[in-house]
Amino acid sequence: MYADSDGTEDGGEGSILPADESLRENGGGRPTLPVDGTLRKGEGRIRHYRWDVKYEYKSPDCFKKLVITINGRSPGPTIQAEEGDTVVVEVNNSLVTENLAIHWHGIRQIGSPWFDGTEGVTQCPVLPGDTFKYQFVVDQAGTYLYHAHYGMQREAGLYGLIRVSPRQPEPFAYDYDRSIILDDWFHKSTYEQAAGLSSIPFQWVGEPQSLLINGKGRFNCSLSSPVTGICNATNPECAPYSQTVVPGKTYRLRIGSLTTLSALSFQIQGHKMRVVEADGHYVEPFEVENLFIYSGETYSVLVKADQDPKRNYWITSNVVSRNRTTPPGLAIFNYYPNHPMRSPPTPPPTPPAWDDVKPRLAQSLAIKARQGFIQKPPTTSDRVIVLLNTQNTINGYRKWSVNNVSFSLPQTPYLVALKDNLKDAFDQTPPPEGYDSVNYDIFSVQNNTNATSSNGIYRLEFNSTVDVILQNANTMNKNNSETHPWHLHGHDFWVLGYGNGKFDKDKDPKKYNLENPILKNTVPVHPYGWTALRFKANNPGVWLFHCHIDSHFYMGMGVVFEEGIHRLAEKLPSSIMGCGETKTFRP
Ligand SMILES: O=C1O[C@H]([C@@H](O)CO)C(O)=C1O
């Protein structure tokens, strides 16, 4: 028998074990590095986790509701591994009446596309009572995330961090390594939200009731009544998170956002933050007073505890890019030996104006790859796909569309359908490569009466270089364009540029940053703006690319890319089967 780890923060490492003979290397222990110091894929240790996923009543913001927990916790345990290790997570679905799938956000799943955890794309859902074993190599050091990828389940609290440490020294120094995971919190269940979004009349999810920092927030209990639910402001479950720091020491804070809706501004009162990592890649360092962070992004910042040590300071998160009605998320930056719960003597800092795009665009532009760690992009691309993001109505239902196509998930996962040539499993007509950029006015409400729903996909030539231009536009409300964080599964992409207004295919590519663009897996497209990305289609599999706002993806804001499907192993794991046309595929 082996011991399981719950992977607690700060030293809670996954245990080393001979879980699976096929994975065993050096008895499962630390590998002997080859003489040249390089490590081949999967040569590391095995980190084994066993998770029980269920609904439990919790009060993360003092308001009692059903929360999805992993081994009793939300956020779930942090996965800790070293570059090259194999992570094995055995997930038991104890949700009783609900399916499940878990996505390992930022892990490219090279050689294991079937364990990307994307329901409908790479696997069938895990049924209640079933156990699913995810098994993948964490081939890149950095800060990553995991979360539910079934319906709008992430909203219920199934999320956590993955920390992968490097085998080489890092280009910056710090004394302690800590994690902060940000979320927005809604009191309605995922069912109420999803049903509202797919109803006529449309019922929007609204703004979050609170913002959580490491799973703790504060709802104003005077706003609740015995009818709306139980709220107890003195419940210890909603005591604020407190990060204790030793005066004079430098802290690396790994900050991840898994909000379901909100873009955030994160700040530590009186302290500057030095940004050093974004989505697992080293950043040419720059200082900020507040960090803008979009759902699906991770950053590492260095913070020195160099202020007056006789007091505590506020750690805050605030909604930006949507009209702010949610109170700030508050945590405490606690200077040892002050009491960790002592409120700072001054009010929290004033957040930036919610509708000021300029500083957000400026931060996006400031993020460059760090000197000495630059991986240059190919200088040209083989294909350019322009994706216009619009809101529209299809058959009376409110939707989001990309080039007038609102994405819907098929019953049979694409991975199986493509591998086994199940042509009826999804629409074989690919979605458009662009939109009518000459005539379409991105600054006004457009009715887009031709919009349709489809599950057609983009098929990419293996090893080709693909550019994607995300083009934002006005929503169905006047003078309104939202920020959308787009996340690509299975790859990192180079961020070549951002701009205001309509992308100009002749002029704008000349301004691309081909010298030191950052590699990321999630990137915002700002209101009325565009964002240009480049990636190599070199990871055989089927990969979702979508807005990381849960309700927007649910309403159709996504596309799917296939590449190199025929290079995959003869047989896909039978554990991903069992739905749609794969019902009979399990042995
Ligand atoms: O998808 C959305 O719908 C609402 C609103 O546009 C409905 O009118 C909103 O704020 C979104 O982000």
Automatic annotation (TrEMBL):
It comes from the Eukaryota. Residues 1-39 are annotated as: Disordered. It is an enzyme of class 1 (oxidoreductase). It holds the Pfam family Cu-oxidase. SUPFAM superfamilies: Cupredoxins. PANTHER family: L-ASCORBATE OXIDASE (PTHR11709:SF218), MULTI-COPPER OXIDASE (PTHR11709). This is L-ascorbate oxidase.
